[in-house]
């Protein structure tokens, strides 16, 4: 029991520590002291793209462009769409874009004619989506 009493005495002899208070004041003057302009923002966004992501975007766009060009050659003139593949990706006609992207997913293949894996298709579509967002 003597040990417990000794611990209790030591605890009672310790000076009380003040609790730190959390300040929720919004009056801090140097927290948000500058405004970023559009050019600085766009420059920061460009620098944030990882090299692999940029390479994936380029691969997806090149694949889509090659497929689109070949497809246009095979279609009759009456069925051909905008000759520029990037314009097709940036169209406001959502039904047309959906149809073209669906055809792309079904028809695209590797250079040796084999089907892409599902993961590759997913990465291509993700790359195309990033390209569309950048423009």
From TrEMBL:
Pfam families: QRICH1
Cited InterPro entries: MAVS, QRICH1_dom
Domain QRICH1-like positions: 56-134
Region listing for Disordered, in residue ranges: 1-22
Protein name per Swiss-Prot or TrEMBL: QRICH1-like domain-containing protein
Organism: Amphimedon queenslandica (Sponge)
